[in-house]
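Sorry, explain these tokens?

___
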Amino acid sequence: MKSLTLFLGSALALTAVSFNTLAASTPNAPHIYVKGEATLTTMPDYVQLSVGISEIDKNLIAAKNRTDTAMAKAIKLVKEVGVKEGDINAGHISINRESQYNRTSGSQEFKGFRVSRTLTLKLSDIKKYPELLQSLVNNGINEINHTQFLASNYNELHKKAQKLAIKDARDAAKEFSEDYGVELKGLYTASLSPMNVTSQPYMRAEQTMMKADSTPGNFVPDAYHAGEIKVTASSYAVYFIE
């Protein structure tokens, strides 16, 4: 079974009676301020890749023809490995005049016209990444601008992490109230971002590990050793106590 690892941790702080002026965040009554956290780890199942070709020549047409030829080969290659038309963008081109300083003459000398083109693509079959990258370089691509391994279910996992962080905050409040012999009297306010509170949360040392079947369906193990992707979320809450 494909698996996803979950790490849970919580933080909380007790403020017996609030005498500060931060009325929007904390009540003027006994309360506790808690923080819940959740981290989901998964593996990437697609690659966002940006490569390029750059040529320089005193003949502008010659430089442009070489870059255009290399780009046409690159586009053909990515289509052959199954990249969809809509996942290919090769529209960018730049042309710059370059000069080089001559120490002997003490002047700038024309070096040539630099023509650059960029190809960006989304490769869904992650196991083909090493072969595709090598083929692109073999056929004229001389710039690797950006490579990012991503997970198609990231948004889904982030929503799940948010819910788990909220649950962790509730559990933290219950645990703390039991340890200190106080009673929870209801929620005052909650947020997914830190509140404007003077007290600093106390972090619990222990972590809880769980398993869930949430790995992307087309994940390929040991494909280029891209490493895990961490999806994190936090939840903050203030509870009345008695």
Summary: The chain has a mean pLDDT of 83. The chain has three helices and ten strands.
